[in-house]
Amino acid sequence: MRPEEMFRAFRAGRRPMTFARGSFYGFLLLAFLCWGYLLLGTESGVLDILSERAWSSAAEFLRQLAGLDSDARPAYLQAGQWEDKAKLAYSTMAMSVLAITFAGAGALLTFLPGARNVSNGGLGGAPSRSWVALYYLVRLSFTLTRAVPELVWAMVIVFFLSPGILPGAVALGVHNYGVVGKLCSEVVENLDPGPARALRSAGASNFQLLAYGVLPQALPQFLTYLLYRWEVVIRTTVVVGFVSAGGLGREFRLSLSFFHYTEVALIIFWYLILVVGVDLLSVWLRRLARNFGPVVR
Questions:
Q1: Burial class of residue 68, CB neighbours in 10 A (0-12, 13-18, 19+)
Q2: CA–CA dist 262, 79 (Å, integer)
Q3: pLDDT tens profile 70-120
Q4: Which residue has better confidence, 148 or 52?
Q5: Which stretches within 14-128 are classed as H helix?
Q6: First and final C-alpha spacing in the chain
Q7: What is residue 296's predicted lDDT score, i.e. its pLDDT?
């Protein structure tokens, strides 16, 4: 076979390059370059994980958490410590509930204007310049609030609010407002426009169109995203607690600073209780939301 015929046969048998295929090849290339840097780079520090010193330091830290290297009574064996940490755990739970309430209230008021098919009349409504301007304004607020991490929001808010659970809740709520709002706006953009257009053809107003044609379809997914973000918020409370936002996070930072390692272990245990409890409650509530979906539709 001549070279020209071999080339034509190769071209005929080759699959076309699609966006998904190109993205997969790009991911493989990036993964190869990153792992190559980690394994071959002199400053990556990946080889320190295999060193004897790193493992001995980890073992020593675990012994300190368990209180084996100290003659003092461990914190997890003191009833008073359990009571004190339970109060801090309650404050942490209150912070997460306040945060997701702030985020949910803000997203519920803005995720419909933040959907493109609502602003441009794609669902059967009447498009207007004011709706388009509101769409870009809401989308900008989603981008700005979620682009700034929770820790940065907490560092800013704690300057004009007294230290406690409120600045932490506001910081977590502002960040998650952008996340939940963007996700729910995209849910609306992917809705079936049939019910809304049928309502418009029947003479429904813009408010009736949103209230009866759009919101009932999007509400179950909105609740699902909100509950999922609550699971994330309860884990992030320890981060905002590092800047005196209250709860277990602040106590965690102080215990580490004063080398009270058994108290650190007790705080970690309380965090596990909170995370597991919130996860189980969220799963149950999401199941209720999914069962609620067909009813409202």
A1: exposed
A2: 13
A3: 888 888 899 999 999 999 999 999 999 999 999 999 999 999 889 888 888
A4: 148
A5: 19-40, 52-66, 79-110, 116-119
A6: 64
A7: 37
* CA dist., res. 111 & res. 114, Å (int): 5
| Entry pTM | 0.80
Best CA proximity match to 78, nearest among 273, 265, 277: 265
Q: How many other β-carbons are positioned within 10 Å of the β-carbon of residue 182?
A: 21
Alpha carbon distance 212, 222 (integer Å): 16
The total number of residues written for the chain in this structure: 297
Q: For residue range 241-276, what is the model confidence (pLDDT) as tens digits?
A: 877 667 888 889 888 888 899 999 999 999 999 999
Hey, what amino acid is at 187?
Answer: V
Distance of CA 297 to the CA centre of its chain: 27
Tokens standing for 70? Answer: 């100290």
CA distance 150 to 176: 9
Residue type, 256: L
**Alpha-carbon distance values, 33 to 19, 26, 50, 148 (Å):** 21, 11, 21, 29
Tokens matching residue 50? 């295999």
Structure tokens at 87: 């109060």
Residue 209: closest CA among 110, 123, 119, 117: 123
SS3 39: helix
Dig out the tokens for 86 from the structure. Answer: 């339970």
Exposure string for 206-235, b = 16+ CB within 10 A, e = fewer: eeebbeebbbebbbbbbbbbbbebbbbbbe
